[in-house]
Amino acid sequence: MIKELFLLADKIRFIREKHGMTQAELARNLGLTRSSVNSWEMGLSVPSTQYIIELAKLFGVSTDYLLGLNYKSAISVDGLTEKEVSALIDIVNCFKENKKNSSKVN
To answer: Where is pLDDT greater, at 8 or 103?
Structure first.
């Protein structure tokens, strides 16, 4: 269980920083204190189910991703054209193919 706590703590910190948000800004968005967010990121406490859902919505990831149940994350394509979405899919497939080919070499 402790390993899972740190995994969640690391993911919260990583995704917050990736979005250029401070602990205080995240806390404000969730209606919490900065010390609550800090406790999550230090692995001293875990967010309730409600806050895990709020974090997932806020950052555009699944709750499974936050909890370490899968390693997939989601991106929102709202507002993009079909051509733009298609280009993103092509880029993802290119990365997957490169990774697949590099693992064959090793």
So the answer is: 8
Q: Which residues contact 81 (CB under 8 A, 6 or more apart)?
A: none
Q: Is the dihedral of CA 19, 82, 88, 53 positive or negative?
A: positive
Residue 9 zone, left/alpha/beta (φ > 0; ψ -120 to 50; rest): alpha
Predicted confidence at residue 75, as pLDDT, reads 74
pLDDT 10s digits, 56-106: 999 988 888 888 886 666 677 889 899 999 999 899 889 888 877 777 665
- Pick the more confident residue, 43 or 33: 33
* Assigned token pair, 9: 């703590």
| Distance of alpha carbon 103 from alpha carbon 45, whole angstroms | 38
Task: Provide the 10 A C-beta neighbour count for residue 34.
Answer: 14
Place of tokens 């404000």: 28
Instruction: Report the distance separating Cα 5 and Cα 18, nearest Å.
Output: 20
DSSP class of 96: H
